[in-house]
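Researcher: Please translate sequence to structure tokens.
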Amino acid sequence: MLRKVSESLGISSLGLPRTRSLNEVFTSPRKSQPSSPIAPNYGVAYTLDRYLTNEGHKLVASYFRLNQTQKYIQKGALHQITERELDELIKSYDGVTTLAFETLNYHHLCLTLAECKLTAKLLKYDVVTNIRTLNLSRNRLSGSSIKVILEVLQKNTTVTFLDLSSNALSETESKWIGHLLKKNKSIKELSLAFNRIGSDGARRISKALKINITLKRLSLESNRLNAQGGLYISDMLKVNRTLKYIHLGSNNLQFAGIQGIAEALRVNESLISLSLDANNIAISGSKLLADALTINKTLTHLYMPRNSIGDEGLKHLCQALLLNTSIIYLDVEFNNIGVHGNTEGSSVLGKLLENHVAPRAINLSHNPIGNSGCEALFVGFHKNKTLESMVLSSCGIGIDGINAIAKALKLNQGLQSLSLYKNSEIGADGHLALAKALEQNTNLKKIQLDYNFDDWGAVGHLIQRYLTRNLFLQQEKYNVACQILKAARIMLNTPVYHTTAANKFNFFANYRRSRSIRSNISSKSTKSIVVPSPFIVSFMYLPFEIQERILISIDTNQVLTEHQEIIILNWSMRNDTLGKSKVEFLTKIFGAYHPLINDVRLWPTEFNEKDALVCDRF
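Model: Translation complete:
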């Protein structure tokens, strides 16, 4: 075995005697070593040097040792290696272009100062190690332990994602973070969530971000920023032009801080996602944000859970969205909407969804909307074609509310995902009403239900079957639309080829024959007609009505409407549509583009708590 390893490494044996073979070293029993009562026994690595006299075998042993050091680094077992071993490993990478440590996931390891210094050395030789992602969350880092890493990162050119969440960072450490953001030119995503940075720390970070031009994502969730910290952040957002995602949840920004954020939204043109969870926004704060949304045209995702905005706050937001078409996702869960049977907020939101294109996803979970609120929300929902997802978990919905939803779903053509989890009053009749609605609905692909009644299997399988049908039907619609577009682009815009005399004779013979069946070609029944190749070559000679029917015949299963087919043909004939994306094309054809993702659950009979928590906002 050793000979094969040596040959694979290009090492030839010198023929010198060995005191002990490698096989003997690995197979012979080792004497037990008493573990120290102070330091834990992490295992003792094999020391091969003292058993080897052959130079080639020493090279093999060196290779094994370097490989072992690399594995320790990848696993985060930095206590197993020394600084000398790390230096040897880095030296061995000289001239190697492959990524050595693209991702270092040192989550929840309680790193010591010595281990942080080893990590800093890895970051120092960035050209060699090529570290892109560095996760140091939940390590209780502070003081010198984090300082040694942040100082090295100032000159690092490879790390793009840095996670320092759930440590012990305070206002003192924020000074070093500020220096990092001023000098580093590679970090694009930074998470500082669940620390103690405070308002003074927000001032230092905001000052640095006024000149930083690379950071795109920042999480400051739960950092005790308070109102003053919110004002510092708002001043930064008025100047910064690169930050796109910011998470300010659980910072008690209060009215003054929200007022500053709202003012910043009026002039900021880069931010697309804003999280303001649990910040005591209340009705007054929601009005400030709503007024800002009438001016801001770039923000697409707004998260406002746990802020007690109530029905009045929701009305302010809906009135603002009538003048805003950019908001895609709105999260207002846990906001006391519908308390004491109030339906004002639900009614205004229902009218917005009936006549407007925004938002495309909304989360209303954990609001006591009830049956009356649900009826007001869905009274005109059958007219909506753009809302893709709605979450109504834990909203106190019963059979009357479900009947209103089922009635709207029979005619709605846009909704893709619906969550009705934890609405215990739905019962068997409610589930059956939804199943009957899905028989006519061909768009819904995902639904979350409790199935909290006896013998739910039959209804559950029926719902699963309709969801599966809808998924494959939508996929077929997209494919057929693209196929018709490709054929139309080629056949309607390609110059007529020169044909031989025989082909010309065949063409005119086919053309005369086509005139006799022209009336039949105009109907859908000619989808099975096979067109000869000369007919296709001289396609441009045919009257446009016949060309149109031939192209439409690609839709063999008639999954597209006549209106959609005409739009496709018009799109293919226009020069200004050349170079447009697939998303733009499908959006034009179907009114809204609902992407087909791979992780769509066809049969979601069980609920996953992770689906309800919008925690991945960073």
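Researcher: Any highlights?
Model: The longest helix spans residues 457-493.
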